[in-house]
Specification:
binds aspartic acid, alpha/beta, 9 strands, 5-stranded parallel beta sheet, 10 helices, disordered C terminus, 4-stranded parallel beta sheet, globular, single chain
């Protein structure tokens, strides 16, 4: 894999994805083998928007590789409050670090920021745009639970603003996957994403639905997402769709016994807590997979960019 920056999953070929996932599996088996690999390396964390899993798993990953992180901290306590531009902030922090992780509320922010830096920049979510490192851990989880080829997946919820959905949908076009998108009409996938998906796989594997019922029995994986309240221009519009798609024990009655349920988290009320105790629930495993997958990604990027090649 050779990329300077990781901004969207559109950059990733099937071979790139498999390289990261295979490396993650090796690390998962024997994390001690890489425990000192990136000693003295520093990862810069720039989170302009809330994060729990992405930020903490990047931090855990870097530390488990023997490196460390420097964290800009909250926007309120940084020079952003004094009016510093994103371009200036990333140019300063690249001078302190070997790679940068950026999350920002504005779509396109990671692309713009990457134009100002030479160290690898990883997009950890840009508004309603993309979240490619989440996609890699999603693919890892799918591969472990259901396999990536001959896959039937339902992706449900806020497909309009859900960046994890956009990134995952693009990446899945590299595989033999049938993708069913389930949402209220107002939260359907952006038309340009649908267009791109049709271009990528000839449209054969893409279907849109407004109800889960008709597709549920055929699914290997159901990927549930949160309605992205913070992206709605109008709270009333959010209230119209809030709580519309929920999974509970009754829903499972129509599903295959082997169904894998995923969610990028945080969940609000999309998945009833009773599901957590079932064999279907893979969302906590999915969150934990963020560590080996991000270790693998950092290892590949830092080795390519650095002087400690094996
Ligand atoms: N944690 C994911 C994200 O940052 C999903 C979500 O927030 O709903 O996009």
């Amino acid at each position: 894999m050779r990329h300077d920056h990781l901004i969207t999953s559109k950059q990733l070929s099937r071979a790139d994805i498999e390289t990261v996932l295979d490396r993650a599996a090796e690390i998962d088996d024997d994390p001690s083998a890489v425990a000192d690999r990136h000693a003295n390396r520093l990862l810069g964390l720039l989170f302009f928007e809330p994060s729990t899993r992405t930020k903490m798993s990047f931090e855990t990953a870097m530390k488990r590789l023997g490196g460390d992180v420097v964290d800009m901290g909250s926007v309120e306590s940084s020079s952003v409050k004094k009016g510093e531009t994103l371009a200036d902030t990333v140019r300063v922090i690249e001078g302190y670090t070997d790679a940068l992780v950026l999350r920002h509320p504005k779509q396109g922010a990671a692309t713009m920021a990457s134009e100002f830096v030479d160290v690898p920049l990883l997009n950890a979510g840009d508004g309603a745009g993309h979240h490619p490192t989440q996609t890699l851990l999603d693919l890892y989880t799918i591969r472990e639970n259901a396999g990536l080829d001959d896959l039937t997946i339902g992706i449900m919820g806020d497909l309009k603003y859900g960046r994890t959905v956009h990134s995952l949908a693009y990446a899945l076009t590299n595989f033999d996957a049938r993708q069913h998108f389930i949402s209220p009409e107002s939260l359907q996938l952006p038309r340009e994403v649908v267009y791109d998906l049709h271009q990528a796989d000839g449209g054969a594997g893409i279907r849109e639905h407004d109800s889960l019922e008709e597709v549920l029995p055929s699914l290997d994986v159901l990927y549930v997402t949160r309605i992205q309240r913070e992206r709605f221009p109008d709270e009333q519009e959010y209230q119209k769709v809030a709580g519309e798609y929920q999974i509970d024990m009754e829903t499972l009655e129509a599903a295959s016994d082997d169904l894998t349920i995923m969610h990028p988290l945080p969940r609000v009320d999309e998945i009833a807590p009773a599901i957590d105790e079932t064999e279907c629930a893979a969302y906590f495993e999915q969150a934990h997979n963020g560590v080996p997958v991000r270790m693998a990604l950092l290892d590949l990027l830092l080795r390519e960019g650095g002087d400690d090649d094996e």
